[in-house]
């Protein structure tokens, strides 16, 4: 047998798809493991291996059309996840933060870079303008690091994420202006066309994507991978529409991420799946694509390449640092936030590559400039992740000091389930929202079976266990541990309460179908008995729509409920739900002092956008809910148990009255009994 038969890829570079894909996946695996040993972030390892494997290094692997395609897909995927992770609530509370950072971070390097290009590098005016636009923008190359350390909700980080909307848009607008000027077509009509295209992209994506996704999530209970495919379809359609409009597709993906942000709950199954596929496959292909653009020979390609590279790297790094410092002084950010803004904003790839290649194609840039920009990409691939990991880790540590123990952030939830499959799934997804970002402690799912004849009992238990095992798969998808248990008890309420004691649960979450017992209890025999048999907090939820499609949360506060020992714990849960879903809180205070509750809510983490409204009575409350709410709203009622502090007799009938109002979903939150010390840990200052 010939050597060709034994080693079909004996000629280099390797172009056979299976071998190329195998080497790429190996680079995704080996690169981060090796580079972390010398103190660099994992994504740098992928970029370096891409450079070593590619044409500019060993030449082992061809920078083929397949790599380019998957790299561009990864770039679009990366920008979509950036939009998806954007803290819209914080952005809406402080939009000027993103504007200040974006404009400062762009125009300082742009003006200084243009002057340096003309004076130091002797470039023509339009070439200097375009080259300055290359490094005035930034790509969130180190976004996965910020996401890994859980600091993407920080206001300084949100400003950088929002700022990319300004920097990349401005860079691409300047590209369009320069190309028009070079072609002799600079005119008012060109400006109208550019700004009109951007406005049309925003309007079309913002008004079409959310209603389509919301309808799908609410009406089609298919396997969750169909939801994933729908999301992919939406953001690639937005990217394609941007390309049709002659603007960068990454801008379309970013806008789609923002549009779907509030529909894809953090910690949910869909969000986890999106992040897993992106971080494991598509984003690494983008990184290896960037690495393969690096040509190590450019270092020896004459003095001109090194001269241009030195100037643009120096101007970019210095002016990005100055911009971060200026913004930190204006906004009052600390040193770790300043460093993290600097690290994130020095990343270059997306707009830089697009602008450089177009400038080269139209004759504005020489090969020396092109090679210098590629060298800048390698430098920023080292600088940006290093700075980002350094300051993100410090910021995360400082944040952990302020956040309380895992008992607060990761509740042990027990979830008794019935036999309605769709209701069960919605309750489970709601429990994931209650847990938030911390998912170490399991959700304990339980079903209580009443004793029957031997054969009937065996069949019932077997059927229930089969149903419960399916929820382990859902938990695996959301990366939340799930424990399941089948109990046999004549009294289901006793079985639930005993199970909560045995697993040391600190929250019982139960579903309600809207029916009441003949004895006119609040919910029905089992739920009411659970309330009477336990001092644990008990949340009773009726979910008429998936929790991630919630547009707004309305909170009902009965008079005097703040004097109950478990008040602050439930406030924490309410604000946590709002933070996870990215929604606002409209807090309806019935027959009590609004300012008092504004102060009480302000004492509890996390941050949330809140509006307090005084309600003069229960009839007015029902009229308000009927007139102001829609089926996509979610109502949370803080209700003590009958006879306890904060109880009002109108709370007896409130669940049934809520069931007839427009909001399809609501929860009645009964606080923990007789443990004021436990409640104190939810306060900012104890």
Automatic annotation (TrEMBL):
It comes from Natronocalculus amylovorans. Keywords: Antiport, Ion transport, Membrane, Transmembrane, Transmembrane helix, Transport. The chain crosses the membrane at residues 18-35, 42-61, 67-86, 98-119, 125-146, 158-184, 190-213, 225-241, 247-264, 276-300, 306-327, 339-362, 368-387. The keyword Chaperone does not apply. GO terms for molecular function: antiporter activity. It is found in: Membrane. It is a multi-pass membrane protein. Residues 26-387 form the Cation/H+ exchanger transmembrane domain. GO terms for biological process: proton transmembrane transport. This is Cation:proton antiporter. The keyword Ligase does not apply. GO terms for cellular component: membrane. The lineage of its organism: Archaea, Methanobacteriati, Methanobacteriota, Stenosarchaea group, Halobacteria. Gene3D superfamilies: 1.20.1530.20, 3.40.50.12370. Residues 412-542 form the UspA domain.
